[in-house]
Amino acid sequence: MKATHKHLMAGAAALALLAPGAGQAAPDAYMIGLSVDITGPSAPDSGPTADALRIYFDRVNAQGGINGKPVKIEVRDNQSQPARAGADAKSFASDENVILIINSALSSTYEPVMTEGRRAGVPVLFAGGVCPKEVFPPADPLMFCTSSYAAEKDTEFAANYIHEASGGKAILGTISTAIPLSRAGIEHGISVAEKKGIKVVAHETIPPPTPNYAPFATKLKETKMDWGLTWGPWIVQIRIFEALRQLGWDGKLMAYGHLISEDEMLRLKDPGLLLFRTSSMFSDGQPIHKEVMAAAEGKTKFPTTYMSEGWVAGQAIEAALKKVAWPPTRAKMQEAMNDVTIDTKGLRGQPIVWTKTNHFRTESAYRVYAWSKDDNKPKAIKDWVKVEIK
Amino acid sequence: MQVLANLVVLTAIYALISCGYVLIYRVSRVLNLAHGELMMLGAYLLFTLASLFKGGPELAFAGAVGLSLLVGFVLYVVLMRKMTGELVIAAVLVTIALGILLRGLMVLIWTARDLHPISVLGWKNPPVPLGGGTSISSVALATILVAVVLYLALMLFFRYTRWGLQMRAVGERPLLAAQRGIKLHAVYALAWALSTFSGGLAGMLLALDSGLGSTMVIVGLKAFPAALVGGLDSLLGAVVGSFIVAAAEILAIHFIDPLISDVVPFVVLIAMLLVRPWGLFGTKEEIERV
Amino acid sequence: MTESPPMLRLEKVEVVYKKVITAIQGVSLDVQQGQIVVFLGTNGAGKTTTLRAISGFIGTDDAWVTEGRILFEGQDIANWPPQKVANRGIALVPEREKIFETLTVMDNLEASVGAGASRATRKRMIDTVFDHFPRLATAKTRLAGYLSGGERQMLAIGSALLCEPRLLLVDEMSMGLAPRLVEELLDHIVTLKKTLGLTILLVEQSAHLALGIADYGYVIENGRIVLDGTRERLGGHKDVQEFYLGQGGGDARKSYREVKQYRRSRRWYG
């Protein structure tokens, strides 16, 4: 038993190393608390968001900070465990100088963080994960979200696109995962598609951790579907696609374009994989993409194309902080966030606009990317389509 | 036909994974609950070596397989050795702690994002047609072959070699084995090495077929019912258990609902635990004592 | 001291289980090279603990020699692990769990041959065992779990011999066996002593057979040695006659159960 404790402690010590910047609050900076999943199940999404925020504000601080003051982010690893995230939020909330809590982890951590935020009156920003319903109109006064995806809005766009691209003749198979949000999103997509007269032949829900996707793909392929729609964790979306291809399926799959998707498109180079997303791809080569890539180069273990979500969160925080006069308070921060327009400089199709009642964004825009053999890179095959969020 | 092919592939995957549980359990009655993490470690080692030896994918693969063997040996010597003679439950708890530690370390080193060792190795994974419109991926075919060769080799090893004989002796009565001069620690270390070797192979093949990410740990746990159904201390049992679990899962996917395929292995497991708690080929007396 | 130093000497050995339970205390005994020494005592007197202290504990026993020395050929082997003791030249035939039941007879023997022995050496050694116990040779391929009690004992002794011991410890060999079989096995022990030059420490509960072949004997009660002496001296001792030889005061032989009953009442009420 002694050895057990010893090794648990070694583990704890290793994890404790992950929380840099912990220490005395310097009153001479804008203080932000970040509770993020660095070593848990959501690490592949949350890790790059944390890296991007760090890189973003290192750069801001190097250029003189905001309103002449630096921004300091205290990072804690919550491993997507609700109890840890709650403890993080509590500790941030107990420090009077912290004016914003950021949470980036699985949605199971949201409730305890929101509870602490409300108790102490600290605004909470969700970034890099799914957006909680509290940020959609009518929004909770303290809850905000910059994440790009919104299940039902996304699948609605995708279903409309499939209808348009197939001339209404698609035989559609849909794939969700055993996550409520994913199933709800796909069910909404199905109802949109069916209303448009598309024949939906399958809706399979796949458990995310499965060693082999061939059995699922076999069943889907037997439905003779020629279009697929999926919205869920990337791993399921892409593995079912690859398994279908292994079986010789030659249809088109519409999949939600997570951070990782650009990298994956480069790997697969398959024109039949269509990615719908509200973020632009770095292969577009806009100035902002070059800027982010240059800033992130060598400062993260993730490919620089993963920085998009965290970067947008950084832009949002910077835009709000500019309106928070020194000395900062939580109330000032909340007020600033309640009325702000965030210029994403092309990382998204639209600026993010937060109002008193809408803490998601008033308008989203979607693009569809596919691999272009001629250009040998991903290319938008459908340009920004605006969608109003009410 | 395709369903049958899928069944064989999934059986091979489960058999390859559960082999590692059986090897350690058989000699020491310890359930290694860090097996999923160790599989993943093997796959990450392959990824890293592949990145290092860009020109020699075969070398990288062989190196990763060799390192997997070494990992188990080192783990035993520095960690599990201290647990020999302690209560089995204490040793199992140590493996849980080890799993947590390994998971954290792997995320720190490799970030847990989806990686594709096969691209780095420069290998391809084209489908292999089996006739009648049926096909499986090349890596899946390799997985079947590796599983068959590994199980045959292990069965011969246990039956005909001195080390194998000593492992069987230690598995039945460690004290008597020690009194007969068998070096317990060497035998346990070998079991751990073989376990991480087979687990590493499983992890590498899975990663080659469908990528490497944080979910591999859970895949490792999913093979656990297969090992239990067959009886934790029998290699033959592991194969049969893998087949039963794979068949239940694939039939559920095909004829009921893919969603329940996740729980089907555990339903099979519970049914087995009610009827025959020691598994199909397990040793009755040992389980009852727990 | 006219005698040569003993092959095995226990000096005031104390064994504690689970850090609190003292199983034996101040046990001292000598085993001279080439002798058969018998160690007598009733159930729970500490015989098996003494043997295990010599042959080594493993972690699950949670037992340690906390005091005293166990000298084998002059070297203190107290608290050595069993495999080291075995390789040093002491083999134990335990009372229970004495064979590998899931292995065949042949595999039981193979597994017991010391590491590094060549195939030819192994075969020669195992053939020697078959010479001693021809019944094992005919049961080579059988699973040891299906052997009869006598065959198990032969296999256990045979396996122990393959460790090439100079000192053989045998725990409660007669337990559960018919007297005729015990006699047969004791004959084997005598033969082994003669042909292999073995030194043997026999632990027994009932002494009337074992004492017959012993050169020397000890009696242990409640974890302490209470009596020792040559076969003749012990055999002539009143207590030994009564409790271990079952020859109480000219009456008919007392059964083991009766003797035990008697001892109990003496301990509690006497």
Q: Can you characterise this structure?
A:
The complex is a heterotrimer of chains A (390), B (290) and C (270). Chain A has helices at residues 2-16, 43-62, 82-94, 110-120, 151-165, 180-195, 214-221, 234-246, 261-268, 287-296, 308-321, 330-337, and strands spanning 30-36, 71-77, 98-104, 124-126, 143-145, 171-177, 199-206, 227-230, 252-256, 273-277, 340-342, 352-354, 363-372, 377-388. With 390 residues, chain A is α/β, with parallel strands linked by helices. Chain A has two domains: 2-149 and 286-364, Response regulator (Rossmann fold), CATH 3.40.50.2300; 151-283 and 366-388, Rossmann fold (3-Layer(aba) Sandwich), CATH 3.40.50.2300. The longest helix of chain A is centred in the N-terminal third of the chain and has 20 residues, at 43-62. Chain A is globular, with a radius of gyration of 21 Å. The N and C termini of chain A lie far apart (57 Å). Mean pLDDT of chain A is 89; it is low at 1-26. Chain B has 290 residues and is mainly α. Chain B has one domain (2-289): ABC transporter involved in vitamin B12 uptake, BtuC (Orthogonal Bundle). Chain B has a two-stranded antiparallel sheet. The radius of gyration of chain B is 19 Å and the shape is globular. In chain B, 61% of the residues are buried. The model of chain B is unreliable at 286-290 (pLDDT under 50). Chain C is 39% helix and 25% strand. Chain C is globular. Classes of the chains: A alpha/beta (390), B mainly alpha (290), C alpha/beta (270). At the A-B interface, helix 1, helix 2, strand 7, helix 7 and helix 8 of A face helix 1, helix 4, strand 2, helix 9 and helix 10 of B.
